[in-house]
Specification:
Strand content: 15-25%
Strand order of the largest sheet: 8-9-3-11-12-10
Number of strands: 18
Radius of gyration: 26 Å
Shape: globular
DNA sequence: TGGGGTTAT
DNA sequence: ATAACCC
């Protein structure tokens, strides 16, 4: 890595090669073959010579908070800190602290089983996610200070693409410092570091940044967690779990094979879920090696080309999916499950409660939802929890009532929801529901600009739907009769 | 199994 | 609207 002196130009101008590198690169562990698309050496940009990075490899970190809900509860009430603690939703212990785990409590364990295993177990109710959600976004926002490229996965995990941050730090290192770069945390497999290898150097700098992130999370929010640093999301996620509470691990390329073969079953591969695992099992595919060596053609016929190609790449540790900045949420929902709901009146009460909380959340967010959805789960003896949904646009005059802090929108929306309800459930026949959920989605930024009458017919889309600056024009939701 | 989320079809 | 995936 040359300290760039050359053109005597300002250092912040042409970083397009860094951008190009940020969305390239699967970099798994299929036998050393370099990515075909990358040149090496020097590339000309305009009249200037810019060093290309010696490979298109990315530096990705996966951060995973330790037993997140339990940590939040222990911060809320420090007296719980040294006790075995479980967070309860309905009759489940959805997560628990390490004190409880030592005593045999597991995640998603039945409350009765947990109490049996551990009679001293302290339980707190975690059905209201508000405080968890708020803390979760504080974590994401903290990470965004290191790099804006942060992707959330659930409430307690984040991916950050550190490629550019690492590239910025490298030239700052003097050549004598380059040979004394050290790792922060564990190296997977205890693999020896080669300081001549630029890939190693970059990952080690990534591990230092990961340590800074964990320090910041602890100092500013009081939260501990694990981190994994690797060349793609799959590997970062797999390696983050190797040393478990409150530790971090970096994967060097040479140990990729060992990491993916440490999985005992393909279901453990993130991206291969319950359904796909079952179908693979039916094909006799059980291990990572089975999937690697299975006929691509047959797999494509069996699962479709898209899934087949994606998961077979995963089996080699290859994952070219970018870290996609999550930004603000795409939807807000609240749900409640119960043993039985069998009358319309009862359903209406529950829906009203869900709606009340949602209106608060939507109000705080500032954006306006343009679609509302109702979800139900019907009782059925063993059918795998299939849910049914109905959704519809929110009338524009109701949207305007949202976010005013009072509940003007409550009654009209509740009326809409009950229409959706009766569309799904024949209330003249007996029914038995076990879950109700209300979801606001299709969120759009508020319209701050003043508009003339013409603007209401055809208006530039202000939606933040991320299709990169494309200015699509849409008809407004309003009906022509409104004018 | 809870109470959330996302994207693809 | 559903189905798959993630936590």
């Amino acid at each position: 890595v040359e300290p760039e002196e050359e053109g005597g130009r300002d250092e912040e101008e042409d970083e397009s090669w860094v951008m190009a590198l940020a969305d390239a690169g699967a970099t798994g562990c299929s036998q050393g073959a370099p990515e075909p698309e990358e040149p090496g050496g020097l590339t000309g940009f305009h009249d200037q010579v810019v060093p290309t990075p010696s490979s298109s490899s990315r530096v990705i970190v996966h951060l995973d908070l330790d037993c997140f809900y339990a940590q939040v509860e222990m911060i809320s009430n420090p007296e719980l800190k040294d006790k075995p603690l479980g967070v309860q939703q309905k009759y489940l212990v959805v997560t628990c602290n390490y004190e409880a785990r030592k005593l045999g409590v597991k995640k998603l364990m039945n409350v009765r089983d947990a109490k049996e295993k551990c009679p001293q177990l302290v339980l707190v109710n975690g059905e209201d996610l508000t405080r968890y959600r708020e803390m979760s976004y504080k974590v994401t926002e903290l990470l965004e200070e290191f790099s804006p490229v942060v992707e959330r996965l659930g409430f307690d995990e984040n991916f950050v693409d550190l490629t550019e941050v690492v590239e910025k730090r490298l030239p700052q290192l003097q050549s004598d410092e380059l040979s004394s770069v050290t790792v922060s945390g564990h190296v997977y497999n205890n693999q020896s570091i080669n300081l001549q290898d630029i890939l190693h150097i970059r990952l080690l700098v990534g591990s230092q940044i990961a340590a800074e992130m964990r320090e910041a999370m602890y100092n500013q929010l009081g939260l501990t967690g694990c981190a994994g640093v690797a060349s793609n999301k799959l590997l970062a996620k797999l390696v983050s779990g190797v040393f478990k509470p409150n530790q971090q691990t970096v994967l060097l390329p040479e140990s990729c094979k060992d990491l993916i073969h440490s999985l005992n079953h393909i279901k453990e591969m993130p991206g291969i879920g319950y359904k796909t695992a079952k179908r693979l099992e039916a094909l006799g595919i059980n291990s990572v090696h089975d999937l690697q060596t299975f006929s691509s053609k047959i797999l494509e016929k069996e699962l479709g080309i898209s899934v087949a190609q994606r998961i077979q790449k995963l089996s080699f540790g290859e994952d070219n999916s970018p870290v996609t900045p999550s930004g603000p949420p795409q939807s807000f929902s609240e749900e409640d499950s119960f043993k039985k709901c069998s009358t319309e009146v009862e359903a209406k009460k529950k829906i009203e409660e869900l709606l009340g909380s949602l209106l608060n959340r939507v109000c705080q967010d500032g954006r306006k939802p343009h679609t509302i959805r109702l979800v139900i789960r019907r009782y059925s003896s063993e059918k795998h929890c299939s849910r049914e949904t109905r959704q519809c646009p929110i009338p524009s005059h109701v949207i305007q009532k949202l976010g005013t802090g009072n509940y003007d929108a409550m009654t009209p929306i509740l009326d809409i929801l009950m229409k959706l309800f009766r569309n799904m459930v024949n209330v003249k026949m007996p029914f038995h529901l076990t879950l109700l959920s209300v979801c606001f989605c299709n969120l759009k930024a508020i319209n701050t600009t003043k508009r003339g009458p013409i603007d209401n017919y055809l208006t530039p889309s202000l939606s933040t739907t991320s299709h990169s600056g494309k200015r699509s024009f849409k008809m407004k939701d309003t009906h022509m009769e409104d004018f």
